[in-house]
Amino acid sequence: LQNKENYEPFICFYFRKISIDDFDIGRPLGKGKFGNVYLARVKKPQAIVALKVLFKSQMEKEGVEHQLRREIEIQAHLKHPNILRFYNYFHDRKRVFLVLEYAPRGEMYKELQRCGRFDDRRTATYMEEISDALMYCHEKKVIHRDIKPENLLLGYRGELKIADFGWSVHAPSLRRRTMCGTLDYLPPEMIEGHTHSEKVDLWCIGVLCYECLVGNPPFETASHSETYKRIMKVDLKFPKIVSDGARDLISKLLRHNPIDRLPLQSVIDHQWVRANSHRLLPPTCPVKKS
Ligand code: AMP
Which end of the chain is flanked by fewer CB atoms within 10 Å, N or C? Predict the structure, then answer.
């Protein structure tokens, strides 16, 4: 069975109760903190999906049920070629199951480990894809807040898919003072515990762009306190391999003051992105006439 892009396997599915009996379970795709993710096939109408299984007991122990609820609520409303589709969910006594779009090329993090670093063409393509996806999120008042290679999956043709909205919020954030995200990607305003806006995502894509091109994040040190210091000072140094165009873009995103950061549309229009991006858009889905 082909994993057709833009295929909508759940249109009818959405409106009825589903259970594990609706699926044939395949190989495990990965292990998460609260359970495993499996490749699965919906029996009728046939479609390939990823089935994420979360154990209620483990989530209760960590007190993250509200986070999962928010993740489901947010992701269910997002529909964009560079955001992992959330199709449906169901639960039994012990487990919660999330029915998600399958990302055949896996994690960007693993790809980066395998390749060491990415070239300008690949990185610029990711920058265009992620900027477009985040523009869509921000229009819907959703801030991701946890952009990093571990939370990015790759689609059938290698296109970026934002996954894991576990830390995302509807802006303005009610949890404004919460520290979250991996240290290396934390923007200064989150370290200082100031209120933060959707501009945290601009900082994170600046860090991401650097990490893709260099192979490690820009403020990485052996200790947390040193990393904090380097972030606060925006102590940014580029190795020779980073091109002038990429330096210009990253420097315009990694600004201490959130209002000085380059807006997403300007990232897409940036001369280095335009010169290097080879973004492919999924073919549009033929609309069925009723
Ligand atoms: P998570 O619990 O979301 O961290 O997922 C654990 C691992 O399963 C990830 O690191 C991925 O390698 C894999 N995975 C999760 N979701 C998907 C998906 N939709 N498609 C393909 N692989 C996935």
Answer: C
